[in-house]
Amino acid sequence: MATTRAKLAWIVAASIVFSVAAVAYRHHARASQPMPVLSQLETFSLLDQHGKSVKLADLAGNIWVADFIFTGCQAACPMLTSRMHSLQTYIEERERSSGREWPVRLVSFSVDPEVDTPAKLLAYATKWQADDRRWIFLTGSLEEVNRAVTRGLKIPFEKGGAETSAFDVMHGEHFVVVDARGRIRGYFETDPEGMGRLKDAIETLMAEKGA
Question: Do residues 44 and 144 touch, judged by C-beta distance below 8 A?
Fold first, then answer.
């Protein structure tokens, strides 16, 4: 019963966040106004796939796109990582066509940090041909991942207890766009329409940043 209530609360909380974000984004698109600022992230300290410490401040000055995966996932995560890889390719192509570097990073947070060590994330990143100059995978203590993902990025996640499969992890499947000042500017579906809007959002924030 407690697990059911927790899952219901997860669904309600996520629905509210994404509904508000969707309305704000549609208003931005219609009115050609700056993208809304949804919230300011609080600091966090995690480890990347090379075991290097990464704090929120280390991403300052960059627009970044976050997603939420775990290496043992065989359901949504391969699709999410494939979409992120396609975004990496898109940014590389835009850099070549514009003749300049784009200050855009990709950040994948593990939602099973007790299992996903930096070494496991490195193997996963290598499998997906992640360019670690742009795309980082983060893990750390469960408390710190909760601080970054649930409290900061407003993406709830829940791992099943001892009676469930080790791979029973509920987590959000939206991409989150964060601006160069560490502020959440949008949540995006990962279907073709959502990915198109996400790319438009990156372009908008590039112009806003003067990059």
Answer: yes
For 55-65, b where at least 16 C-beta lie within 10 A, e where not — what string? ebeebeebbbb
Question: For the chain, which residues make up each domain, given as ranges?
Answer: 2-209
Does domain 2-209 match CATH 3.20.20.30? no
Q: What is the pTM of this model?
A: 0.83
Token representation of residue 211: 């990059």
Q: Tell me the pLDDT of the chain (211 aa) as tens digits.
A: 444 444 444 444 444 454 444 444 444 444 357 899 999 999 999 999 999 999 999 999 999 999 999 999 888 899 999 999 999 999 999 999 999 999 999 999 999 999 999 999 999 999 999 999 999 999 999 999 999 999 999 998 887 544 444 445 666 789 999 999 999 999 999 999 999 999 999 999 999 876 5
Other Cβ atoms less than 10 A from the Cβ of 138: the count is 24
Residues in a beta bridge with 157: 171
Beta strands in 70-134 (DSSP E): 104-110
- What is the C-alpha to C-alpha distance for residues 87 and 59, in angstroms, rounded to an integer? 18
50, HSE (Cβ side, Cα atoms, 13 Å): 9
> Under DSSP, is residue 198 helix (H, G, I), strand (E, B) or coil?
helix
